[in-house]
Amino acid sequence: MKPIPFNMKGTEYALTIKIATYPEGNLAIKLYQESFGQLVFWDSLTVNLSGLCPKDCGYINTRSAGKRFYAWIKRNGLGERTGQVRLEDGVEYVEYLFNAKKLKKLDPDGYTYYERRLKGELGRRYERLYLALRRLANHIPDFHYTDYSGWRGLQNSLGAPPLRVEAEDPAHHRRFTFEHRGIILRTTITDCDTNIALSSLYRRREDMAADLLALFQDELPAFMPWSETRRRESDARHDPPLAQTFKETSEVRQKASKKKSRKRSTKS
């Protein structure tokens, strides 16, 4: 695969992406530079923090390149922010959801190995809630969240509930807490100005995600309606069978009328 250029401090580097896995099964993205016909390790795009990450997710390494990787990832369509931020040893790490198709194209063997070794995957238990959180992080200013859920196996997480996510919404001065304890699913919304908390209980995980998105429905971009050209093209796909049906029907009627006229002529 063709290397991807990366500029840092006035120097351009041609970087080749290789996919690997960390011991827990988390996604590891390594960057290499060609030297005398061989690939030499340059830096890691991701870091391995404690706990498990969902599939195709990883925290960005900002120790050497600073925040330059953020623009590089966006410019090359490699991924997008999930909205989760972790603070480790005084350093803020941002989680990204990487473009699986692009990673597989850049390093087919490495990505296939990562998929096979993946452990602790989110599965489908809380998938809709995480999708809703990522959507809000992409469209609502400064919205972010931190995941303390027990399924991630974080340090000192013994006894933690299967789901516990804390989200910050500075634009509307409120905090969210999403929990799953026993059979109870709870969303708690706290007003940062009055410190008043309101809780909602759910039986289905899908309802928890739907209610969260409903709070921001006026601010989230709607899906673009079909253009007139696309609508005509779609209608055109159904026109031939419909026209053919009318044609066949008219032919049947003509044949029937001819038979009737013949019978009348023979009787007369």
What does this structure look like?
This protein has helices at 68-75, 100-106, 108-117, 127-139, 205-214, 228-267; strands at 4-8, 11-21, 27-35, 38-44, 46-47, 57-60, 79-88, 91-98, 144-147, 163-169, 174-181, 184-191, 197-202. A 5-stranded antiparallel sheet has the order 9-10-11-12-13. A 4-stranded antiparallel sheet has the order 1-2-3-4. Strand 10 and strand 11 form a beta hairpin. With 268 residues, it is an alpha+beta fold. The chain has 2 domains: 1-121, no CATH class; 123-222, no CATH class. It is built from 6 helices and 13 strands.
How is this structure best summarized?
The protein has helices at 68-75, 100-106, 108-117, 127-139, 205-214, 228-267; strands spanning 4-8, 11-21, 27-35, 38-44, 46-47, 57-60, 79-88, 91-98, 144-147, 163-169, 174-181, 184-191, 197-202. With 268 residues, the protein is of the alpha+beta class. It folds into two domains: 1-121, no CATH class; 123-222, no CATH class.
Unreliable stretches covering 5 or more consecutive residues: 119-123
Topology as H/E string? EEEEEEHEEHHHEEEEEHH
What is the helical fraction, as a range of percent?
Answer: 25-40%
What is the number of independent domains?
2
* Relative strand content: 25-35%
Which structural class do you get from the secondary structure elements? alpha+beta
Shape: extended
Main sheet: strand order: 9-10-11-12-13
Rg calc: 28 Å
How many angstroms does the end-to-end distance come to? 85 Å
- The total of helices stands at 6
Mean pLDDT: 82
**Largest pleated sheet:** 5 strands, antiparallel
Would you report the number of β strands? 13
